[in-house]
Write a structure and sequence with these properties.
Largest sheet of chain A: 2 strands, antiparallel
Structural class of chain B: alpha/beta
Order of helices and strands of chain B: HEHEHEHHHEEEHHHEHHEEEHHHHEHH
Radius of gyration of chain A: 25 Å
Organism (chain B): Myceligenerans salitolerans
Distance between the termini of chain A: 31 Å
CATH topology of the largest domain in chain A: MetI-like fold
Chains: A mainly alpha (317), B alpha/beta (436), C mainly alpha (341)
Subcellular location (chain B): Cell envelope
Number of domains of chain B: 2
Number of helices of chain A: 12
CATH architecture of the largest domain in chain B: 3-Layer(aba) Sandwich
CATH superfamily of the largest domain in chain B: Periplasmic binding protein-like II
Family (chain B): Belongs to the bacterial solute-binding protein 1 family.
Strand content of chain A: under 5%
Shape of chain B: globular
Order of helices and strands of chain A: HEEHHHHHHHHHHH
Oligomer: heterotrimer
Largest sheet of chain B: 9 strands, mixed
Protein name (chain B): Sugar ABC transporter substrate-binding protein
Number of strands of chain A: 2
Helix content of chain B: 25-40%
Keywords (chain B): Signal, Transport
Strand content of chain B: 5-15%
Helix content of chain A: 55-70%
């Protein structure tokens, strides 16, 4: 490699500090920029071709009345968006999505953190338990959901187990609250392993010295957890919650297998609604408008989360 | 699109956009009638999507396809049969249509038939079939074609006509000391009330379930039509414009189903799935093609649907094959379909699928295809079952109706539900959809 | 005064109900009935196990007994928690040895009444399963390697090189994280179709490596490189390495752990990809595993459960085995990444 002794190695987060336009730019710096552009070129071009372009097409579709079966594609202006505003089904599904996402994120993160903390105790058998908790992540979603649909039936395995304890379980998938809860819990068990691993890794990255110092200061374990561990792993919590929220908006197969969106419309979340409109009702234009809405929602949520990080995320790297 | 795109990408992106966005809107409205296939400039490759993955089915299809390609080398270079999983069938088909890569021919689900037929997505086959040599269109049983017609046009060939019948677990029924349903059929007393009583008593005795309307599962409510047809009830008027869930017959039939479930315990309640073929239930209403799921672990019989207050009504489940107008060579595809379903080939297909041809509908021909069923069962359930049979409810707007009604009926499936009130509400909600 | 660190005997349910929404709760175990308030065990890893010097009142033996008790309770809790995670997988694996009617029983049987391996034979008889296994394996491998490479480069550049527009480009790339695949499947299909790549493996390789699925990987790599001390690169610079040289010879080798995380994420995602193969692929020889599983159906489209479950088991067990072996390295690897926001 040619000697380029003067490659500038910036200190600190480069991307955060924009280049001042006034500074004259040396040849070496320009060469460094070129390397930068080359390195990001694949993902940037990929994002343009496989994210921005398809999104643009979806926006374009959303301005049309598109019946796939008939092959009609006519410009409809903002008609689909006006329909969004007046659609009671959409309001229901937004509400369902809201409950689903909140429930999923809270349960998922709580359980993931609890499991990670338990597994961080260096107990015998930790390796095995770790594999247990992680195993659903690799199991096919369909197989996973089907087993649970058996277990959650009125006379299924869970209520059978409860009756041996003298309890009468509800008809899980047939009541609005328990149906939503069931879908959430099944999803949490499926994916919590991945988040658990992330937390576990984060916990192991917390410097022992800090803990020791706090302990010597007489801080109790819970206090140490709250004042040291949580802040230290808060960046991971942010990352995990972003991934989980975004993931929660993509839930589809689980709802299809477990509840079909019911009872009533109580588990018809936004993506399920979108899917119905597009692939069952052949309303591609309208489905595209919902897709645009979905994208905007995810975007706003993520931005809010990202913005709020400064308040609760302890250190930004 | 006014998103600024970096220069070097602009050309390529614009090109991709142009190709991807170009939507041919030409096939809208009246579907073009098909004539004799004009010989294409070079032989084409035909593609048919199916949802079966059974290797025997596929081998038979391929055999017929290869024979056609051999006879018509100037038209086609080959026919491929593409299996799409049943669960994702319509999704995939729709994506292929939307993506500009429709198959030439496709199996069409019964419940989507009116949407496919009326949208203009499928080509009119009648002229092609009528002009095909030796095809004998009049041999097709008229009741099997009803669903696939619009005016004079015939938009798909109903290659599979599987009647609904009642499978009974005679082991469980006799253990409960109940009368053999076959005797009731013989004496003309095979009614829904009788079936309910036997089911309730057997369920009580076995600790399992009584009568299961298969695939209903409190989701696919259209399967209940096998019951309410006995009351002469229907969800909407024949022309599809008026909701008839509130008609007295329907209210009575639904009340019967509700009470059989919640008062008598004759039918499994919501959230309880019982598989008859696993020995979990005394009887089940389903298509006879499900006989293949019987593994000999109990004694069983197959009977026609019971009679309701309005008499006995046979019901069939169908599947059709259609030609997509948006395909590249609809003429050639239609010609192939005529050959695929010619009398000779229809007889081969009858090995697996009860055909719509009167000449093939006899117990002798069908028994080869259904070794598990006796000729008597085939005669009473299949042959008699196809003549004069109706299909499950369908509508041009069926997908939406199905989903909306499902959500409404959920309110009915509780012990103390007011059936009439739920049905009133259901009609109020779906009437606008019927008029759409 | 008894130090708060000292566990009262029988502490067994540490912070079971500790939810992120109640930061003020001082007694986390209190909401779980029967749970003793024993927060100290939460963090009582070996590094904290040494008794601090200021503990004159409790005998060593008593302490050890208590600790053994606490550990036993924790293990019991872990065992209990394992059930909902393990049972479905267990059921899946054992059900592949059952006949259909037993599989469909509403109350699942834990062990087959009459185990048979017949379904495993059918897995290979009904479809070119070995070929499909290979398809999934090589696609996942190519996607994983491709993603690691692409994400490492992009992550490095976004973290280290101050080129104009870096922020804007990063945001552009991040957008991919926010787009559910259901949203873009139709336009992507049109693009793939217009390129004539239907029924090839290209869309299953190129789109994940360059498109939305790679974004998380880019994000992880960027965070890692941000956390990596710049000083480590100084030495390379002194030795006269250029930017590429620093990346290849210093940064990349140092990022093994983050790459490991990216690898496992990416591999799993590709391995389990479902909707896309169904939409893009049409011939059986090209199928991937999740898609192949759906093809084990009887003549009327009803699933052959035992064969499906046997095939599913065959797809799950190797991945689990790899995880079992590699997990320690994987977790430790992640621990050292800059997975910190």
């Amino acid at each position: 490699m040619a000697a380029a002794a003067s490659v500038p190695v910036p200190r600190g987060p480069a991307a955060e500090s924009p280049v001042s336009k006034a500074t004259p730019v040396s040849k070496a710096v320009r060469r460094d920029w070129a390397v930068g552009y080359t390195m990001v070129a694949p993902v940037v071009l990929g994002a343009l071709a496989f994210v921005v372009l398809p999104l643009g097409m979806v926006v374009w579709y959303s301005l049309h009345e598109w019946n796939v079966l008939a092959g009609t594609f006519t410009f409809a202006g903002t008609a689909n968006y006006e329909r969004l505003l007046a659609d009671p089904g959409l309001a229901d599904s937004l509400l369902a999505s809201l409950w689903f996402s909140i429930g999923l994120v809270v349960l998922n993160i709580t359980l993931a953190l609890l499991l990670a903390v338990l597994l961080d105790q260096k107990l015998p058998g930790t390796t095995t338990f770790r594999t247990f908790f992680f195993s659903p992540v690799v199991v096919s979603l369909v197989a996973w959901t089907i087993v649970w649909s058996f277990l959650l039936q009125a006379d299924g395995g869970i209520n059978g187990f409860l009756s041996t304890l003298g309890l009468e379980g509800p008809n899980w998938l047939r009541h609005e609250t328990t149906a939503m809860l069931s879908v959430i819990v099944v999803q949490v068990f499926k994916n919590v392993g991945l988040n658990m691993i992330l937390f576990l890794a984060a916990l192991q990255g917390v410097p022992v010295e800090l803990q020791e110092a706090a302990r010597l200061d007489g801080a109790g374990a819970w206090r140490r957890f709250r004042s040291i561990t949580l802040p230290m792993i808060s960046p991971t919590i942010l990352l995990v919650s972003i991934i989980t929220i975004v993931g929660s908006l993509e839930v589809f197969a689980q709802i299809d297998v477990l509840t079909g969106g019911g009872p009533g419309n109580s588990t018809t979340v936004l993506v399920y609604y979108l899917y119905q409109q597009a692939f069952r009702f052949n309303e591609f234009g309208y489905a595209s408008a919902i897709a645009v809405l979905l994208f905007v929602i995810v975007l706003v949520l993520t931005l809010l989360q990202w913005q709020s990080r400064k308040r609760w995320v302890f250190h930004e790297v | 699109m006014h998103t600024p795109i970096r220069r070097p990408r602009a050309a390529a992106a614009a090109a991709a956009l142009a190709t991807a966005l170009t939507l041919t809107a030409c096939s809208a409205g009246e579907p073009a009638a098909l004539g004799d296939p004009e010989t294409p400039s070079e032989p084409v490759e035909l593609r048919m999507t199916v949802w079966t993955a059974d290797e025997n089915h596929l081998a038979l299809f391929q055999e017929i396809g290869d024979a056609y390609a051999e006879e018509n080398p100037e038209l086609v270079s080959g026919v491929t049969f593409e299996t799409v999983p049943f669960e994702d069938y319509t999704t995939t088909l729709t994506t292929q249509l939307a993506g500009g890569n429709p198959p030439d021919l496709a199996w069409v689900l019964e419940s989507y038939a009116p949407e496919f037929v009326s949208s203009g997505a499928l080509a009119d086959l009648r002229p092609v079939l009528e002009s095909a040599e030796g095809y004998d269109v009049d041999d097709l049983v008229p009741s099997t074609l009803e669903l696939w017609q619009d005016g004079d046009g015939l938009y798909a060939y109903p290659f599979s006509n599987s009647p609904f019948g009642v499978f009974v677990n005679t082991d469980q029924i006799s253990a409960a000391g109940q009368e053999n349903p076959a005797d009731l059929v013989a004496s003309g007393e095979w009614t829904f009330d009788a079936a309910r009583d036997i089911a309730a008593a057997t369920a009580e005795d076995s600790g399992k379930q009584g009568l299961v309307v298969r695939d209903f599962d409190y989701q696919l409510w259209e399967n209940l039509s096998t019951v309410w047809d006995g009351w002469g009830a229907a969800p909407w008027s024949e022309d599809g414009t008026q909701c008839t869930f509130t008609d007295p017959e329907m209210v009575e039939a639904m009340q019967w189903i509700h009470d059989a479930t919640f008062d008598d315990g004759a039918m499994p309640g919501p959230g309880t799935t019982a598989d008859f073929f696993a020995g979990d239930a005394a009887m089940t209403i389903t298509q006879i093609s499900r006989a293949s799921a019987l593994d000999g672990s109990f004694e069983w019989d197959l009977l026609p649907l019971p009679a309701g207050p309005a008499g006995q009504q046979n019901v069939i489940g169908q599947a059709g094959i259609g030609v997509f107008t948006q395909g590249e060579n609809p003429d050639v595809a239609a010609d192939f379909l005529a050959s695929f379903t010619s009398p000779a080939n229809a007889e081969k297909l009858a090995t697996y699928f009860p055909p719509p041809r009167a000449s093939l509908l006899d117990a002798g021909t069908l028994s080869a295809a259904n070794p598990l069923l006796s000729e008597e069962q085939l005669q009473t359930v299949v042959v008699d079952g196809i003549e004069g049979a109706v299909t499950k409810p369908v509508h041009q707007n069926f997908a939406k109706l199905s989903e909306t009604v499902r959500a409404q009926l959920d309110a009915m499936w509780t012990e103390d539900a007011d059936v009439a009130a739920v049905l009133d509400e259901t009609c109020a909600v779906i009437q606008p959809l019927l008029e759409e | 005064m008894k130090s708060e660190v000292m566990p009262p005997a029988g502490g067994n349910h540490p912070g079971a109900e500790r939810s992120g929404g109640r930061p003020g709760a001082e007694r986390p175990g209190a909401t779980a009935p029967g749970a003793q308030n024993e927060p100290s065990m939460i963090l009582g890893g070996p590094r904290q196990d040494r008794p601090p010097p200021d503990r004159p009142h409790v005998s060593r033996a008593g302490l050890r007994a208590r600790r053994r008790w606490a550990r036993g309770s924790l293990i019991a809790l872990l065992l209990l928690l394992s059930i909902p995670f393990v049972f479905p997988t267990w059921w899946m694996a054992t059900s592949s040895l059952k006949p259909m009617s037993e599989i469909l029983q509403a109350v699942p049987t834990v062990w087959p009444q009459d185990p048979t391996f017949e379904a495993y034979g059918q897995v290979f008889a009904l479809q070119p399963f070995a070929q499909q296994y290979w398809n999934s394996l090589y696609i996942a491998a190519v996607v994983t390697i491709g993603t690691m490479l692409v994400a490492a480069m992009a992550g490095y550049a976004f973290a280290r090189i101050r080129f104009p527009g870096a922020n804007a480009l990063f945001v552009l790339v991040l957008a991919g994280l926010l787009v559910p695949s259901e949203v873009t499947i139709v336009p992507l299909f049109r693009i793939v179709n217009s390129l004539g790549l239907i029924d090839t493996h290209w869309p299953l390789i190129v789109i994940p490596v360059l498109g939305a699925p790679a974004v998380l990987a880019v994000f992880i790599m960027r965070q890692f490189f941000l956390a990596l001390p710049v000083e480590l690169e100084e030495a390379g610079r002194m030795d006269g390495l250029g930017r590429w040289g620093i990346f290849w010879r210093i940064a990349l080798p140092l990022s093994r752990s983050a790459l490991g995380a990216v690898a496992i994420f990416t591999f799993l995602k590709s391995w389990n990809l479902y909707l896309e193969p169904i939409v893009y692929l049409s011939s059986k020889d090209n199928f991937t595993l999740p898609q192949a599983l759906t093809q084990y159906v009887d003549a009327y489209g009803g699933p052959m459960w035992n064969v499906q479950l046997a095939a599913t088991t065959l797809t799950v067990l190797p991945v689990l085995a790899v995880f079992l072996v590699a997990q320690r390295q994987f977790v430790q690897g992640l621990a050292h990444t800059g997975l910190k926001g």
